[in-house]
Structure prediction request, 134 residues.
Amino acid sequence: MSREIKKRKRILVGLCFIFLILSCFILSRAKQLSLSFREDKLAEPIQEKTQEEKFLEKIRLGLADPELTLVGEPEITASSLVATFSGGLVVIFSTKREPQAQADSLQFIITRAKIEGRSPKRIDLRFNKPVVTF
Prediction:
């Protein structure tokens, strides 16, 4: 019976050895496949947004009025950003002040003007007290 047990042990060790070799082979092939897949599908580099684009995005997010849509490209200078909105409204933002605060001021001015039945043509937010032209 000892020969029978030794024979079974050899068979078991042989099967384990074959399993080990096959596992190593499969894993090495899987790594090669995954590496070649990654080389084929390289991601495009992410383009960083400029300060002006980030500023405008914050302004857009701060506005609650869906009727206010930006028309064309804004004019950007060192200290201000001039944007034209739908309806011909021209708004001058300060790049030195917080965009969210300016968006809140703009929203308040437009809401107030609607209540009064007036339509502003130009709003200058560069100063502590905004200048509104009707």
